[in-house]
Automatic annotation (TrEMBL):
Organism (species): Melghiribacillus thermohalophilus
Protein name per its UniProtKB record: Bifunctional NAD(P)H-hydrate repair enzyme
InterPro entries from the UniProt entry: Carbohydrate_kinase_pred_CS (IPR017953), CARKD (IPR000631), Nnr (IPR030677), Ribokinase-like (IPR029056), YjeF_N_dom (IPR004443), YjeF_N_dom_sf (IPR036652)
Stretches assigned to the YjeF C-terminal domain: 225-496
Cofactor binding description: Binds 1 potassium ion per subunit.
Isomerase keyword on record: yes
Sample GO molecular function, one term: ATP binding
Subunit architecture: Homotetramer.
Length: 498
């Protein structure tokens, strides 16, 4: 499912109308009806419904929504925040139909807000769409503030909450706070910016028949969905053997963090890896081995460890931050000619040796959270949270790495600049060890998949989906442990592999 900026959405509209030949009036009708159908699933005919509209296409969608609800027997009225003469084109066409049908319609009078919001059960925001720039002005700022204070009302936004930009990088002062947003055809880039989530609420995409083919040759941003996982998940052949599913190496295990490599190894094996070896300090092996009897073990000595005899490796989990571990990490990065996942302490050491990435011929996958990523990108966490797409894309293409920016909305960027957003998971994963488990899952799928991008997207998807399933059935969002996620993988995999 494609994610778009405002300019890309305008291009999709233009292509659909000018090249394909669908009229704007028809598209507006499709959008309004589809959103009305979604809203009707959430409300009742006893509710008092108010539709707030502006001058453009967003307002036109609102007219169609109001008319559709009215003809279905709902108690609805429309309030326009602009004089009627400012409503033009396709929106005016649908306003005329609205008035001909007899839907109660009120407008801004002499610049005064005569609208009554108190007592409304449902408020629908169809005021401003994707063309919004800058802070909200009067009367929108006042009406949005009043609407947000109506705690008793269910609030819906049409396409994008009024006050938000469609694109990343724009700070928001005030915006309509929806419980649910029905976005048209494609989710907008800003929906995946952390600060905006409180305004979007739940996000539902409605297909109205727009054609996105005009965007095919551009670097893309997409949401990775369950159907993508089912379509691309590695298939285990009937006569395969353990060597068919890859031989992975996990390097780490500082004295005070033996659990990190242990969990990563268990996760890799649960995710389907054929063989997993752990390279750790020799005095730790006896501690770790009872918890992962299926793995093999080797002393962490690069003079005797043949890294390239493995198909892929993960390094950094519990590696430590000493000068000795920094030297060890540098040697691994220099010697390894296999795909390598770098996490945790590996990312810490990488800050001082980023240029080595450009010399690494085999694929490199970085898996930072926001603080680790900000340090790598020489920026601040706040700047990165405002511009996660552009900043990670610039880094990935410059250094030739796959970049998995961990968060509630994880953004995975390829070396070519294509980006994928995975939205599974919940706050139960905000706990130590979750990243180690994710790295293990990624390694397991990297060993089995033909395409690195698919392995990363699928690994992050099943990691988050497992947390969702477990907190729905057997755990709370407080007590879930990283090790619980490992043991919950079979439930998720059974569902996907069907």
């Amino acid at each position: 499912m494609r994610i778009v900026t405002a300019s890309e959405m305008y291009e999709v509209d233009r292509f659909t109308m000018e090249e394909v030949g669908l009229e704007g009036k028809m598209l507006m009708e499709n959008a309004g009806r589809a959103i009305a159908e979604g809203i009707m699933k959430e409300i009742s005919k006893q509710d008092e419904i108010l539709v707030l509209t502006g001058p453009g296409n967003n307002g036109g969608d609102g007219f169609v929504i109001a008319r559709t609800l009215y003809l279905k027997g709902y108690r609805v009225r429309v309030y326009s925040l602009v004089p009627e003469e400012k409503i033009k084109g396709d929106a005016l066409y649908h306003l005329n139909i609205l008035q001909n049908v007899g839907v109660p319609f009120h407008r801004l009078q002499n610049g005064e807000l005569a609208v009554r919001l108190e007592g409304m059960d449902v408020i629908i925001d169809a005021m401003l769409g994707i063309g919004t720039k800058g802070a909200l002005r009067s009367p929108y700022a006042e009406i949005v503030d009043k609407a947000n204070k109506c705690e008793q009302a269910m609030r819906f936004a049409v396409d994008i909450p009024t006050g938000l930009s469609s694109d990343e990088g724009v700070e928001t002062e005030v915006a309509f706070k929806a419980h649910k947003t029905f976005t048209v055809q494609c989710p907008k880039e800003s929906a995946f910016i952390e600060a905006n989530a409180q305004y979007y609420g739940e996000l539902e995409v409605v297909d109205i028949g727009l054609f996105t083919e005009s965007l095919v040759n551009r670097p893309g941003k997409k949401v990775w969905l369950k159907e993508d996982v089912v379509r691309t998940f590695p298939v285990r052949e009937r006569f395969s053997h353990k060597g068919s599913h890859g031989r992975g190496l996990i390097i780490g295990g500082a004295p005070n963090m033996p659990g990190a490599v242990m969990m990563a190894a268990r996760a890799a094996l649960r995710a389907g890896a054929g063989l997993v070896s752990i390279a750790a300090s020799h005095h730790l092996i006896s501690t770790i081995a009872p918890y992962v009897p299926e793995a093999t073990y080797t002393d962490l000595n690069l003079k005797t460890l043949d890294i390239d005899s493995f198909h892929a490796a993960a390094v950094g989990m519990g590696l430590g931050r000493s000068e000795q571990s920094a030297s060890l990490f540098e040697d691994i990065l220099r010697l390894a000619n296999i795909p390598i996942i770098i996490d945790a302490d590996g990312l810490y050491h990488l800050k001082k040796m980023k240029n080595m990435l450009k010399e690494h011929t085999a694929p490199v996958v970085l898996t930072p959270h926001f603080k680790e990523a900000a340090d790598l990108l020489d920026t601040t966490v706040s700047a990165l949270k405002q511009n996660p797409f552009s900043l990670t894309r610039a880094f990935s293409t410059e250094y030739g790495v796959y970049f998995l920016l961990k968060g509630p909305y994880t953004i995975i960027t390829t070396t070519d600049g294509d980006q994928y957003v995975v939205t599974t998971g919940n706050e139960s994963l905000a706990k130590g060890g979750s990243g180690d488990v994710l790295s293990g899952i990624l390694l397991g799928l990297l060993l089995q998949s033909h395409h690195i991008t698919e392995a990363l997207c699928n690994g992050r998807f099943i990691h988050g989906k497992t947390a969702e399933i477990l907190t729905r059935h057997t755990h709370s969002r407080y007590d879930l442990l990283a090790s619980d996620v490992i043991e919950g993988l079979p439930m998720t995999l059974r569902t996907i592999c069907k």
